[in-house]
Prior knowledge:
With 254 residues, the chain is an alpha/beta fold. The chain has helices at residues 16-27, 40-52, 70-85, 110-131, 157-177, 200-203, 205-213, 227-233; strands at residues 7-10, 31-36, 57-61, 90-95, 135-144, 183-189, 245-248. The model has no long low-confidence stretch (mean pLDDT 95).
Amino acid sequence: MTQQNKIALVTGGSRGLGKNMALKIADKGLDVLLTYHSKKEEAEAVAETIRSKGQKAAVLQLDTANSTAFPAFVEQTQQELKQHFGTGKIDYLVNNAGIGINAPFVETTEEQFDLLMNIHLKGVFFLTQQLLPMLNDGGGIINVSSGLARFALPGYAAYGALKAAVETLTRYQAKELGSRGIRSNVIAPGAIETDFNGGAVRDNEQYNQIVASFTALGRVGLPDDIGGVVAFLCTDDARWINAQRIEVSGGQSI
């Protein structure tokens, strides 16, 4: 009987950090189900790359800001798993999907706050809750925070506060799901060259250099600096790591 590969579900896996996470997880020998918000072709390209590595992959559309759609997504996930992976279960859930809004505290609107909250906290909370029945015992949850929950850069009051809440949620998940052998950890990237927040870190050379100047390793991060850490957390090598915040920032603002 062929042994079932372990499976990771990565939200927001079509580009940026999520794409790198999905590819690095596949390199560890896991199959990957990844979600996208609007960029289906990019997501399909990531899935095709994963298949070229010898692993199974599939994609599903998901708007993590819309929690009312989660029950239908859970049903779709089960169907997709049975059809493409031969199982109804996943082993790891990576809550990566996110957006950035840069707005000073005094100018942040309630609409901006609600959008950030729905994606970064409410979405993470209730999507994880609804996927728990199909998360195998002994599996794991990897949430994504930010260095901005530890250090403050003007313009990220709402984002940073919500990421701090995700870090607290992670500890509660670890405590309450430990009886099932499920681990929950959170990674906190520093400034990374992606299209996050309009690609500011990647495309604004002055901003890039400023961030590099207060990072101990002397540069800003790349997606390739992040995915491997998440992939490690999706292996048995990380089986005794639980309820931890792992900052992956090269020593930013220390």
